[in-house]
Amino acid sequence: MLLAKARLLLITLWAGSLWTVGYLVAPTLFGTLADRALAGTIAGSMFRVEAWLSLVCGAAVIGLLYAAKDVTVQRRKTLVLIVVGMLVCTLVSHFGLQPVMASMREAGDRASFGMLHGVSMVLYLVQAVLAVILVVKNP
Q1: How many structural domains are present in the chain?
Q2: How many Cβ atoms are within 10 Å of 58's Cβ, its own excluded?
Q3: What is the distance between the alpha carbons of residues 114 and 118, in angstroms, rounded to a whole number?
Q4: Which of 36, 75, 82, 118 is the most buried (most CB within 10 A)?
Q5: pLDDT digits (tens, 9 = 90+) for 35-72
Q6: Spatial CB neighbours of 25, under 8 Å, sequence gap ≥ 6
Q7: How many CB atoms lie within 10 A of CB 61?
């Protein structure tokens, strides 16, 4: 019972932070600040924190799933696959695309930066949708 509540709390924290940073804070920064470079820098910092939070929450949720006695094997497999999918999105985006995007931004390669930014946005959307599924399937 306590592990199930802890798991639900972590999943809620994780999903809520993803949705808040990606779909509330970042658009607000770009809509409010006149300096787009500053908005991008702040948003980048927030996405960096979000990536680390995702890694911690994902690892903790997997640990709690394997410690849970109230979760069937099939349900555990499904939930772990969803969490792993979310973690893959984080890893590819933060450790794969983000460094390349930063170098393209510094080099002034706006076309390539824009393309990779689009890929990054799709990965974030996939992660956000997986978060919805995780929240719904968890109870």
Answers
A1: 1
A2: 24
A3: 6
A4: 82
A5: 999 999 999 999 999 999 999 999 999 999 999 998 99
A6: 43, 46
A7: 25
